[in-house]
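Lab notebook: predicted structure, single chain.

Context: the supervisor wants predicted structures on file for every construct in the current expression panel, including those that have not yet been purified. This is the next one on the list. No modifications to the sequence; it matches the entry in the shared construct table.
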Amino acid sequence: MVNTKTIMQECMVTDNPLVSILMAVYNPNKKWLLEQLDSLDRQTYPNLELLIYDDCPEHRLDENTVKEHITAFPYRIIRGEKNLGSNKAFERLTAEGQGKYFSYCDQDDVWHSDKIRRMVDVLEQTGSPLVCSDLEIIDEDGKHIADSITKIRKRHVFREGNNLAGYLLIKNFVTGCAMMIKSDVAKKSMPFLDSVIHDQWLAINAALAGRIEVIHTPLIDYRQHGGNQTSILHGVNNKQTYFLERIKAYRVRIEDYRERIYCDELMQTIDNLVDFYDARIRYYNKPSFHDLRTMMKYFRIAPDSVLIESVMWALPERLFKKILDLAKKGKI
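Prediction complete. Output recorded below exactly as produced.
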């Protein structure tokens, strides 16, 4: 006897484009990982695959852990032979994914059950290459901190529409775990740049391909803890690390943009960024009125950075560290 219910379910699945959830893990906190896996398994969207890249050869992910918590759709674990880091891990997953859409996933968050369904609906209705959502913030124990990422990152401003690539070169508002992108756009973005986090690079390429959509409600509980890779001013502890991470490293990134982005409309923006960062490098090494004037010319690009760097040379290290601590806590 033919099971018509099964046939109807299969048709429903077939009518919904495949979404690949791309998850990179590195020696995860087991409790957080289980909460994340359970939230993936509760997704209301019916056509999913989960690809996991295990980026820690020294502490392998137990497949039984995944098997017990992912029961609603197929999964596959890719074992890395050596630690690649998050960018290369997500690049490998991007190459392996088979879905029409990719949804990037961290190991320590909790997704709302309708996250994928709502994002697919937006992309299917608009034809846009990328959609991102707001994020609810939780702490290490899963307790609510804020109902929007904009409450803890004062300078995080969501933007939607066309022609956003120039803005995204400078500031990123697309958080990788809270976005969905067309797979063909993601694959064309390969290889990922080493100098920029994968979500910003993907967002730039999506903006070059079309309109960016935003869902202004949280679709994910974003866990904030001491090990967050993309926390504000990550790796910056003093003047020297500020210079290396926030000025010199960004100058390398801009050169990578110049080599990889083939868009005449963005060349002037990139040239301006070169001029801006070269002046900041010179000013850090030897303050001068000429370079300060150049920095002020591009003040709108990074007003907070220009303000602090214009007087940083005169600030005692202890005072500068206090300013960094306040910035990291989102108080300034």
